[in-house]
Recover the amino acids of this structure.
């Protein structure tokens, strides 16, 4: 898969940017605040219909106002296609080959993996960041997983409303059993997807870890579902375990006014040489682990889709030392991945051991310089 062209108009500080892209490595270079991250954000927005910086798309428009427009052309094994995102105030259009599609049908057409400063919160932030990491990976392979998540959220919201009613002296204890059963069924589908994805992702971590840390480091990933009693069980047993936990802890949930067990409490443990990076990882360990996780995700997508997804990375020079940056560049080059990375140190890029296209970014405009 190859993003051939990206156009961005009125996104943050970008000034009607139109940039052709090579199938290999493209390096965006320039001082901080010139628009490098905004170009990467444009590519991410084109692929996912979302921003990696904010959930409010109306915040992306330039200070002078919208409409914001991002468009692109890409090549995949099915031929050539186009995508566009248009945001005009609260109104949004997602276009694929000229057709306005709902989000669930738009996402997943341009396979992309990103590594930005915001993604470092996967290991530094709370469990919700790690759940999102799992869910984004699953959606990249199976966009219908969004519907499964939405169903679970709706059922949990209804159960929580009933719990609050019971806590306030209302009636409805019989209804709670029915909501428990519906919640367990929806939760079981999420559990199977997350558990399966985590296992497959862990299996892809070995090669990039050995490349980046030859003979030095062991990185492991372990899915921690809620309730804890399900962690050593078979996936087929999860629904009955959750249902038992819901029944056992019913009075506690009524007192709390919310559901305290289920996939919304899942977590992911990532360890480097036995150190839990969520709690004790250094900045360098966290950065290195995130690179390995993202490369494993690339490999998993490549295997499933039978073509190479696009990779974008911000702050290329700050996340890795020169030796590991060179290893990463070789990994992407030999794997056939298109990569667009940003750096504030142009000389850093010139020491990479693979060919690349150098694009200078200054004051919201771009120019190809090599």
């Amino acid at each position: 898969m190859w993003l051939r062209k990206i156009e961005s108009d009125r996104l943050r500080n970008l000034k009607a940017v139109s940039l052709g892209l090579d199938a290999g490595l493209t390096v965006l270079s320039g001082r901080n605040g010139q628009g490098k991250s905004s170009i990467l954000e444009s590519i991410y927005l084109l692929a996912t219909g979302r921003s990696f910086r904010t959930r409010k798309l109306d915040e992306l428009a330039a200070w002078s106002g919208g409409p914001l427009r991002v468009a692109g052309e890409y090549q995949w094994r099915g031929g050539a296609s186009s995508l566009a995102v248009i945001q005009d105030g609260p109104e949004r259009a997602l276009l694929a080959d000229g057709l306005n599609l709902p989000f669930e049908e738009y996402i997943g057409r341009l396979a992309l993996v990103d590594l930005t400063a915001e993604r470092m919160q996967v290991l530094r932030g709370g469990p919700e960041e790690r759940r999102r990491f799992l869910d984004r990976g699953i959606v990249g392979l199976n966009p219908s997983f969004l519907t499964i998540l939405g169903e679970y959220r709706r059922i949990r919201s209804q159960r929580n409303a009933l719990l609050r009613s019971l806590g306030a002296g209302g009636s409805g204890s019989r209804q709670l059993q029915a909501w428990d059963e519906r919640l367990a069924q929806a939760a079981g589908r999420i559990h199977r997807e997350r558990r399966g994805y985590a296992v497959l992702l862990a299996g892809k971590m070995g090669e990039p870890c050995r490349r980046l840390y030859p003979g030095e480091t062991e990185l492991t990933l372990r899915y921690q579902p809620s309730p804890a009693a399900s962690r050593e069980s078979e996936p087929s047993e999860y629904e009955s375990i959750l249902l038992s936990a819901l029944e056992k802890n019913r009075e506690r949930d009524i007192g709390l006014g919310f559901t305290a067990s289920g996939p919304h409490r899942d977590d992911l443990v990532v360890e480097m040489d036995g150190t839990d990076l969520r709690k004790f990882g250094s900045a360098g360990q966290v950065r290195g682990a995130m690179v390995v996780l993202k490369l494993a995700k690339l490999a998993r997508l490549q295997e499933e889709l039978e073509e190479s997804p696009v990779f974008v990375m911000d702050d290329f020079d700050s996340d890795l030392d020169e030796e590991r940056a060179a290893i990463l560049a070789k990994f992407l080059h030999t794997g056939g991945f298109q990569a667009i990375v940003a750096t504030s140190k142009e000389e850093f890029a010139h020491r990479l051991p693979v060919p690349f296209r150098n694009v200078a970014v200054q004051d919201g405009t771009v120019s190809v310089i090599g």
